[in-house]
Design goal:
heterodimer; A: 169 residues; mainly alpha; 3-stranded antiparallel sheet; B: 101 residues; alpha+beta; Ribosomal Protein L30, Chain: A; rod-shaped
């Protein structure tokens, strides 16, 4: 897999079919549906328990806006991911182009997915910091791999955004 | 002229006591809590975008969150603090408002 910045976009080339499939799973993995821990993390309380009234108002008036914001981000990412649809050569490496104006939506959707997976499998901080764990022997191991891989993509998007903000870059 | 009005101005009658000035002025803190999932570079970028902090200051707060579990990012009037917390939740950070002791 190779990553480069070309014509106002982050271009990821030579993506093997396994990683392409993991990328295609971002929108699905970002949905906390039915997982209480994930729902609680994505829509965390804005204040402590002594601010009950404020928290209730937040749920009523702010949370719907947050849901819409998160959904818009995953929908945009889903549209970009159509580039990875299997074609006549299902096992060929693929290329993904992320336009710079989509960067924030990508960061958001990747974060939703990482937080949801982490809550779903209840990973400890030590597990999340173990970037060299291998091989993948269970669905849980795959979850940890997904979190690390999505974090890796986030790092490249952040670097690209940083470069774009520097006028002499 | 208008003697009753002058008299009322000089010695007003208190009919209802409102909150003390100090209570109204107490600032609210915007607190960000540690989360092992969010990347350090991502958290730094969010602090720069939301608060307009220079990179060094944003990094200092990010490291405080990482090492101490929390950091106070901003203090001031409640409405503004609520807005900052909402912006931080947009970026999926664990953020709360709390009253200054």
């Amino acid at each position: 897999m190779e990553v480069s910045c070309k014509n106002g976009a982050l271009e990821i080339t030579e993506i093997d079919p396994f990683l392409a499939e993991l990328l295609r799973q971002i929108p699905g993995s970002a949905k906390p549906d039915g997982i209480t821990a994930a729902e609680e993390r994505i829509f965390s309380a804005p204040a402590g328990p002594n601010e009950k009234e404020f928290c209730a108002e937040w749920k009523l008036y702010v949370e719907p806006g947050l849901r819409k914001h998160f959904q818009d981000a995953t929908e945009l990412v889903e549209a970009d991911l159509r580039q990875l649809q299997p074609n006549e050569k299902p096992f060929a490496n693929r290329t993904l182009r992320i336009p710079r104006e989509h960067s924030e939506s990508w960061l958001n959707a990747l974060n939703q997915a990482r937080l949801t997976i982490a809550a779903k499998y209840d990973f400890t901080e030590a597990e999340l910091c173990d970037h060299y764990r291998s091989p993948i022997g269970s669905r849980r191991d795959l979850g940890l791999f997904q979190i690390n891989f999505y974090g890796f993509v986030q790092e490249f998007i952040l670097r690209d955004m940083e470069c774009a903000e520097k006028p002499d870059a | 002229m208008f003697p009753q009005i002058y008299a009322a101005l000089e010695s007003p009658t208190v009919t209802e006591k409102t909150k003390e000035k100090e209570a109204l002025d107490l600032p609210w803190n915007v607190v960000v809590h540690n989360d092992p999932v969010n990347l350090m570079s991502y958290v730094t970028m969010v602090f720069q975008k939301v608060f307009g902090y220079p990179r060094e200051k944003a990094e200092m707060h990010m490291l405080e969150v990482h090492h101490k579990g929390r950091s106070i990012l901003w203090s001031g009037v409640r409405e503004r603090a609520e807005l900052f917390v909402q912006q931080l939740h947009d970026y999926l950070l664990l953020a709360t408002i709390e009253r200054t002791n």
